[in-house]
Amino acid sequence: MTDLLIATSIPYVNAAPHLGHALEFVQADVLARHARARGRKVRALTGTDDNSLKNVLAARAAGVSTADLVATNSAAFTALREPLELSFDSYTHTSTDPRHRETVTRLWRAVNAAGDLYRKTYTGLYCVGCEAFYAPEDLVDGVCPEHRVPPEEVAEQNWFFRLSRHAGAIIAAIESGELLVQPPARRNEVLSFLRGGLADLSVSRPAARADGWGIPVPDDPDQVIYVWFDALAYYLTGAAGWWRAGVRREHVIGKGILRFHAVYWPAILRSAGLPLPDAVRVHDYLTVEGAKISKSGPAAADPVELARRHGSDAVRWWLTSEVPRVGDVDFTEARLIHRHDTDLAGGLGNLVNRTAALNTRIVDHEIGPGGLADDVLGVTSEKINSALREFDFRAATDAIRAAVATGNRYVEQTRPWALDRPEQALATLTALGTGLADQVEPFLPAGAGRLRARLSDSANPPFLRLHSR
Fold it and tell me: What is the rounded average pLDDT for all residues in the chain?
């Protein structure tokens, strides 16, 4: 079974995390937990993008040092681990991890040795929010299509990467399936961008403009390495030897940074003689009242506060069950509560509670669970496997909901409380509840533990013990 390396993108830390970040972290965590539960060796990566010009500008505005602002906000991102029940194996903070500077420098030297770096003077339209230059034809009504603000004109002498040299090879990798981009609409978007012709990419900035913040260009200390070249290299830093043949390498990212991961990153890797990613899995955005969630202002949504008020199960379930494979989705706290009460309390929790309550009537009977549980769980497992291969969390949770509905219908149809011999029905329900706890665990790690405990609560009278036939 192929080992799996799965990684989120790393967020800028110019402000505290919001629910949009939680979406990506939870999606990657579900994929990692699902793979581990099925016997695969997994290394899951995340971290923070500390060396951004956005961080420098935010620190200036706040009247603090960049290092202090980065340290405070990086810690806030790392602190999402407990309230969101994340299971990442590596957190890379690009400004303080000593491995990262070495990785970036080594990658730069490899690309330079391939003849893909050169220095030139350049004037262009720069969006600080994207940390990227835009051609005039890429703007929408004169503003950045992502941040809806006009870019500033910048004239600099920078190092450039020969991106155009690698376009054909990347097109071939995507078309052949060597590099999978999901969903198909995003694959088509990348291919259209590639076929439109690629300009070479600026990969450094004057150190003076960044207040010296960032990783210096090797042998050119007046320049710092462009944040995206730096940030993308975090995948190699966190991989710790896992970025190699024989390991499946997958990214989970937002749609706004698609070209960086499906075009720039494969080109840099190819130049350095390293393997390309196997998959780039792309989610759309969360909104609040129709507006893209931001790190501040009325559209902010604090995942830590939501988890404090409603529990990690409610937050994780909403992020996986309500967010479609394609298309933005609007968040409200009322929708989160409704989904929790309907699916978890009224659906899965109700099924397990009914089973546990009925089991108090049975002392010890040697009886197998019967066919229904095996059939339902087999179908559910395959549907979840298929859905997650397609990066469709809503379809995966739909499969769990369907299994729960089958279990609750079975209770109503068999009415085990009215049977003289309810052992078979209760054996089936116990097996189904236990199996559903296993299926739901990647989505609700703590919730799955509580379900198992409810089905084997030693404080209750002895539960039905299941024995294989």
Answer: 90
